[in-house]
Amino acid sequence: MFRYLSFRLLRAVLTILLVVTFAFVVLRLSGDPALTILSPDAPPAAIAAFRHEWGLDQPIWVQYLDYFAAILHGNLGQSLRDGRPALQVVAERIPATLVLTLPALTMKVLLGIPAGIYAALHRNSMADRAVMAGAVAGFTVPSFVLGLVLVLVFAVQLGWLPSGGQDSWQATILPVVTLGLGGAGILARFTRSAMLEVLGQPYIRTASAKGVPWRAVVTSHALPNAAIPTVTVMGFMVGSLIAGAVVVESVFSWPGVGRLLVVAVANRDLAVVQVILLLVAATMVTANLAVDLVYGMLDPRMRAAGAR
User: Fold this and answer.
1) Which CATH number fits the domain that encloses residue 147?
2) 258-277, pLDDT tens digit by residue?
3) Which residues lie closer than 8 Å to 201 by C-beta, 6 or more apart?
């Protein structure tokens, strides 16, 4: 078990390091923040002073070494827009993002998994086809399209809900539904496929032939063995909570991390973008590590294979 955890932790650290390096290099090569923040018409002396103040006139490898050394000391940089610590700027937006993403994740699980199980247990029925049609529609329609349709219907036409902002709890309904429906469709599809594969295994037929009640066969044999693919998808969803909110927060003018990322990229606020990408990478890696641990509990063969 120790070797299994050590390998996963080492892989997680290397993944975060690669993400940090990639983000740093790409952001430096994609444009000059001085021209964006000061405007291209600013005096050359002002642009040169700005670059010197923020270390942008140094070679990229020197900037990277300074940035990495600062990270080791807990300094993730300063915002180029207002000079505040980039971590503070991002941390202020995290609660607003969690207000949307956590209920949306709950909605995905509570809708998707039961729907997938029900569809698998009623294979080729009208209910199965209806569930799968809804699931396909849920995860194929882009989130910005779904969000705009919900705004048009429930905010503009019916006037039941706000179209955006953070003024009341009613303002969270449309963005949560937009985030939740697509993920619920994905979970339903994967859960149904996993259940159908398990229900076709010989040990399921053997348990049924021995007279085990069908409910017990499903709950004690089918569901635990079908959980691994579903856990994989859930881990990805947990890891992408922040990244998945970028479009939805922009559509609904929600002041979260996703919208901050869009604004920071447009303004070339390098430190803020780097902190958000680091946060997304850390969340994704932590979720995948948790999935690996769950794998080891669900199937000891995977733990042994991972240790090797």
Assistant:
1) 1.10.3720.10
2) 888 888 888 788 888 888 88
3) 225
In single-letter form, the type of residue at position 291 comes to V
CA distance 51 to 37: 11
Q: Is the pLDDT of residue 102 over 60?
A: yes
The whole-angstrom separation of Cα 30 and Cα 182 is: 32
Is the residue at 144 inside a domain? yes
168 part of a folded domain: yes
CA neighbours closer than 13 Å in the CB half-sphere of residue 206: 5
What's the structural domain count of the chain? 1
pLDDT digits (tens, 9 = 90+) for 46-92: 778 877 777 777 788 888 888 888 887 777 888 877 778 888 888 98
d(CA 187, CA 109) in angstroms, rounded, equals 7
Structure tokens at 70: 């600062």
Supply φ then ψ for residue 63, to 5 degrees.
-60, -40
How far is the first Cα of the chain from the last one, in angstroms, to the nearest whole number? 11
Which domain does 235 fall in, by range? 94-255
Instruction: Tell me which residue of 108, 118, 182 sits closest to 150, measured CA to CA.
Output: 182
How many Å apart are CA 19 and CA 164, to the nearest integer?
A: 32
Angle between helix 94-121 and helix 173-199 axes, rounded to 10 deg: 40
Q: Is 62 exposed, middle or buried (0-12, 13-18, 19+ CB in 10 A)?
A: exposed
Q: Which residues pair with 78 in a beta bridge?
A: 85
